[in-house]
Specification:
Layout lengths: L1 H12 L4 H8 L7 H25 L4 H27 L6 H14 L4 H14 L14 E2 H6 L2 H10 L2 H14 L11 H25 L1 H25 L16 H7 L3 E3 L2 H6 L6 H6 L8 H5 L10 E3 H4 L7 E3 L4 E3 L1 H15 L1
Parallel strand pairs: 1-4, 2-3
Antiparallel strand pairs: 4-5
């Protein structure tokens, strides 16, 4: 079964050689100043107006303020995609412009620019590589690793992969706590970026607390970041943690296969596609992270090859919640219940 899966995937991806698909995407990796500027305008201006509206509504309706904060959270998802593109150097042609906008959008999303940029680059270089897990990804164990783990590790893993922890608690913990501390593996520049961002956030929080009052600002900021963080982690999860995703040992790992098979095409309704900055075309992004988000859709539809990626929609993506472990023998993600049934069948067969 595993051999058939591997052969099927290789045949599909060999429809284009690396040089062929690189030539196809070349035109889309060129930043467009007008489109980038317009995206900044239609994202940051509405977000700013929401903050203004919240100021005038703070003494009237808590419900309206809460709804506006939720909408602002959706805009922050789009802000993060701009931040993300700046980190790849793809949003603007100018490195300086990317760094400036990257820092500003990083502050709005509570994320240190250069530290995240380094960590995310590691993710792109190691996506789908079983031997290089651990930086910029979601903790994933194989079936054999899980069965060989201690009871404590198993309990920790089950706790981390619990949907409430993974999609509610973890996103908030990530952006409010973990992003405040640099990785021990990063370089001095990345470490400094964390400290600088922490100072910028203290200044940001103090300034808005003077305008809204600390408790009001904290309430609104928690809602905005909660919506943005939970949405962001969900998007990242379903783009890599679906049933037939791609995981291989380093010796068998292939960049094109990791991008086209280990990154889904998350087909969203147009309004959600807009708020998520086209990041649902994730296979295109992993093939070439230098393609700015505003060119991803056109690239996807430019050639049939790009449409070979696994496709998910809002309904089918919900199935990904149950997947917990990578079954290396069958080449797919499985649930703890699937593992239990496998072990029961093996036990019955042995008896």
């Amino acid at each position: 079964m595993r051999v058939i899966l591997i052969l099927g995937k290789k045949m599909r991806n060999n429809l284009k050689t690396v040089s062929e698909w690189k030539k196809l995407v070349e035109v889309y990796q060129r930043p467009n100043f007008k489109r980038a500027t317009w995206q900044l305008v239609n994202t940051l201006v509405p977000l700013s107006l929401i903050w203004v509206g919240l100021y005038f509504l703070q003494d009237s309706s808590l419900w309206i303020s809460t709804i506006l904060a939720v909408i602002a959270g959706l805009f922050l998802v789009r802000v993060f995609i701009i931040f993300h593109d700046c980190g790849h150097g793809s949003f603007f042609k100018s490195k300086k412009a990317n760094d400036i906008i990257g820092f500003i959008t990083g502050m709005l999303t509570f994320t240190p620019y250069h530290h995240w940029k380094w960590e995310h680059a590691v993710h792109h270089a190691t996506n789908g590589d079983l031997n290089r897990r651990g930086i910029g990804d979601i903790w994933t164990l194989t079936v054999k690793e899980y069965l060989a783990s201690s009871r404590t590790t198993k309990l920790n893993y089950r706790f981390v992969r619990n949907p409430f922890i993974l999609f509610i608690f973890a996103p908030l913990f990530l952006f409010f706590v973990l992003e405040r501390f640099p990785s021990r593996k990063c370089k001095p520049r990345e470490k400094r970026s964390v400290m600088v961002m922490n100072l910028a956030l203290i200044t940001w929080g103090f300034a808005l607390s003077m305008v809204f009052g600390f408790s009001t600002w904290l309430y609104l900021q928690l809602i905005m970041m909660g919506v943005a963080a939970c949405s962001g982690v969900w998007l990242f999860y379903v783009q890599h943690q679906f049933e037939d995703t791609y995981w291989e040992e380093t010796r068998n790992w292939d960049f094109t296969s990791a991008a086209m098979e280990g990154s889904s095409f998350y087909k969203l309704p147009k309004i959600l596609q807009w708020f998520s900055g086209n990041i649902g075309f994730h296979h295109i992004h992993h093939l070439n992270p230098m393609i700015p988000n505003y060119h991803l859709e056109k690239c996807h539809f430019s050639d049939p090859f790009f449409q070979n990626a696994p496709e998910l929609n809002l309904f089918t993506s919900l199935r990904s919640i149950r997947y917990r472990l990578w079954d290396e023998d069958n080449g797919k993600m499985i649930s703890f219940r699937d593992l239990k049934l496998q072990l029961a069948a093996e036990s019955l067969k042995a008896a």
